[in-house]
């Protein structure tokens, strides 16, 4: 029997004895890790163990918090950011009931609002340009109005150049 097999056998035996002394609904898990060597990680767990409850227990009692860096939190944040970005672009929606759907919906709402604002800006720009043409042809209005409106049109054009049609 290899050293690893002996360890697993001994650890499992110890966990079974510990579990026998716990209250009936208690669950037991043992995690052994070696920093920078995930291939050496060992997880032994009771049958029926809920790993989400293990994470909650570590949060409550083990100092696991939102601050600090770990790959689980990074992947979770990446999924949320991705869902919001996809929602804003209105593509790749998650299936109904998926946990990222609410984040996709937030992104979709922001994307829809941006689309509305861009369309409103395009309309205002079009109408202001039409007014400017009438003023230019009439030659009877204050030139300052024409200059200020032309400056406003340039601002609108700069913003509109940055947004897709």
* Biggest sheet record: 2 strands, antiparallel
Summarize the helix and strand pattern as letters: HEEHHHH
* Arithmetic mean pLDDT: 85
**Bulk shape:** rod-shaped
**Helical content, roughly?**
55-70%
How would you describe this structure to a colleague?
The chain has 165 residues and is mainly alpha-helical. It has 2 domains: 3-65, no CATH class; 88-161, no CATH class. 64% of the residues lie in helices and 5% in strands. The protein contains 5 helices and 2 strands. The protein has helices at 3-20, 51-61, 71-89, 101-138, 143-161, and strands spanning 29-32, 42-45. Strands 1-2 form a two-stranded antiparallel sheet. Helix 3 crosses helix 4 (101-138) and helix 4 packs antiparallel against helix 5 (143-161). The model has no long low-confidence stretch (mean pLDDT 85).
Which SSEs are present, and which pair or pack?
Elements: H1 3-20, E1 29-32, E2 42-45, H2 51-61, H3 71-89, H4 101-138, H5 143-161
Antiparallel strand pairs: 1-2
